[in-house]
Amino acid sequence: MSHSLSHGKPIDVGHFGLLQEDLPPPPPPGMPAPRLDLNAWFPAELRGHPLELEIGSGKGTFLVGQAAATPGVNYIGVEWARAFWSYAADRARRHALENVRLLRADAAVFVRWHCPDALFRQVHIYFPDPWPKARQQKRRIIQAEFLRELHRTLAPGGQIRIATDHADYFQWMLDHAAQVSGIFERLPFESPDSAGEGELVGTNFERKYRREGRPFHAMILRRL
Ligand SMILES: C[S@@+](CC[C@H](N)C(=O)[O-])C[C@H]1O[C@@H](n2cnc3c(N)ncnc32)[C@H](O)[C@@H]1O
User: Domains in the chain, start-ordered, CATH in brackets?
Assistant: First the structure.
């Protein structure tokens, strides 16, 4: 249990929080990837529902709101900052959202080594860290190679849904999507069911940036 971010209230991730350390390690070179049965993370009665992934869930505002609005869909959120991961998993537990699981992991590792082919209906990436300095840009989660990996994990017709406040990073995303041309079509963004009036998605960062008057950029990349 921890208390960070929760103003002194104890945090309990229960069975809603999972750790990368509990997953099989990436294999030695030449060995097959240890892909997981991610449906098995959910109660038996929910298995077989469409599965969606959120990368960089932060405090879990999108995940909790969207999972409550769409109980017939299962959601996995991946967040590598321990304080955010535990806070989001505790929120899912308090709301008894059995269709939510939070994994503390590097999403790039999880997708590459553990996610099976043709599984996710949607992948949500909202306000990813922009790493604005030129020497840090290699840390950006959206890269051509990662888009290829996400494409592999998407069900036919599945979508990557992206929003950012950062014009330069958005252009970078378009450039990297162009490098993998022919495997996605770009569509206009549509807000999810849980978005509030006038909101694009309704994440914590969106709300903060909206108060600062920042413009937003968003798109859907649909698997062809
Ligand atoms: C700018 S915050 C946005 C959080 C949330 N999506 C929102 O809009 O409020 C980006 C989040 O992504 C997480 N993150 C960045 N890279 C990640 C990675 N490779 N794997 C998992 N989480 C990551 C960070 O820890 C951070 O919580």
Answer: 14-23+47-223 (3.40.50.150)
